[in-house]
Write a structure and sequence with these properties.
This protein is of the alpha/beta class. The protein contains 15 helices and 8 strands. β4, α9 and β5 form a beta-alpha-beta unit. The chain is globular.
């Protein structure tokens, strides 16, 4: 196949590089051709953000005769390095608020349901630490992540207790006294300063890497390639950082999209220009070379799962000739709150149907107002 001048330049580059790739710019093709251009005896690691991307990439590398390229995720590497062969048991769904309260025998100190609020902050503090590149919990200020004024006041009051109990739960995981989370074993992997025996490491979707993942990547001796799109960061809520900006490598761009035409490219540039106006990342010019103009589907993006559910209900009830509604991922994940409580339980609490409530925390609430508090 014929490469664009930008792709050709990347394939023939040397040393550590970072690639800023716009949507539909042939990023995967470029990575495959980069790997093909390396010596056949090279050991190459392709680092994907999630399992589905890893499996898809592994098939593409295999189909192209690049069997020497191994596709992994940061978590699969960490699992092999930390969990495999150990006594650790992994808790795949994470811990619910009431489970943490029970595990640590948290006290309310006279304030109603304070043990649940503390447990909620412990859960978030653990995620904050495990995704960071810091060595100790004490090296972070959890208060920096709390935006709500009322919550901030609570955290200030109980900060020492929250931090101590956060360290205690992490210690219990470390000793194997309780099941470990995915965040935990990835953090332990980072803290072990692993040496990855590869000549080249290709890090995909770098804009969504956590500081912990980036720390492991940057400390390797291999020639490093990090690729992503600074404007497609969607995991900041999981403490991801824009690693493309953090990596001090020579920059290459993939600015031609084959997914849409120039009219969409111009619209995208108009939107991205607003980021420049408020001092955020500068947009590279986008060229649209896609030819398809037929609109086969409509996508709805929401800031919350509830917002998406309400929009779906609206489409169905207004009978807008919608044949199929598809939710990205498992539909069940949209009907659960962050702490694992089902929205059906919230509805049952609202309707006073306590016998239908399964979640222990919600069942302990008098009414919806108490749950909100």
């Amino acid at each position: 196949m014929e490469l664009t001048p930008e792709q050709y330049e990347i394939v023939n580059s040397t040393g550590n590089i970072k690639i800023n790739a716009v949507a539909g710019s042939g990023k995967t093709t470029t990575i495959i051709e980069y790997a093909r251009a390396r010596p056949a005896k090279s050991k190459i690691l392709y680092l994907a953000f999630n399992k589905s991307v890893r499996l898809e990439a592994a098939k593409k590398f295999s189909d192209k005769g690049l069997g020497h390229v191994k596709a992994e995720t940061a978590h699969s590497l960490a699992y092999s390095g930390i969990v495999w062969g150990s006594n650790y048991k992994v808790r795949h769904q994470g811990y619910k608020t009431h489970e943490i309260a029970e595990l640590l025998n948290l006290q309310g100190n006279g304030e109603k349901h304070a043990e649940y609020i503390v447990a909620n902050h412990i859960n978030k503090f653990i995620a904050y630490f495990c995704n960071s590149d810091k060595l100790r919990v004490q090296d972070l200020n959890y208060l920096d992540t709390v935006a709500d004024a009322r919550a901030k006041t609570f955290v200030k009051t109980f900060y020492q207790y929250i931090e101590t109990q956060t360290r205690l739960l992490l210690s219990k995981m470390d000793k194997g006294e309780v099941e470990v989370t995915h965040d935990f074993y990835l953090k332990k992997f980072q803290l072990s300063s692993p040496k990855l025996n590869y000549d080249y490491i290709l890090f995909d979707e770098g804009q969504d890497a956590s500081p912990a993942m980036l720390d492991v990547f940057l400390k390797q001796k291999a020639t490093k390639v990090i690729v992503g799109d600074t404007h497609q960061q969607v995991y900041a809520w999981r403490h991801a950082v824009n690693s493309l900006e953090k990596a001090d490598f020579k920059t290459y761009n993939l600015s031609t999209s084959f997914r849409f035409g120039q009219h969409i490219a111009d619209l995208a540039m108009g939107v991205l220009k607003f980021k420049e106006h408020i001092g955020l990342a500068q947009a590279i010019p986008i060229t649209g070379k896609g030819t398809g103009n037929e609109l086969k589907s409509k996508a709805v993006l929401g800031r919350t799962n509830l917002g998406l559910l309400l929009k779906a209900i609206q489409y169905v009830t207004e009978k807008k000739k919608v044949k199929h509604i598809y939710f990205e991922g498992n539909i069940n994940s949209y009907t659960y709150a962050d702490e694992g409580a089902s929205l059906y339980d919230v509805l049952s609490l609202y309707n006073g149907q306590r016998r239908l409530i399964r979640d222990k925390l919600i069942k302990g609430m008098k009414d919806l107002k108490e749950l909100e508090d």
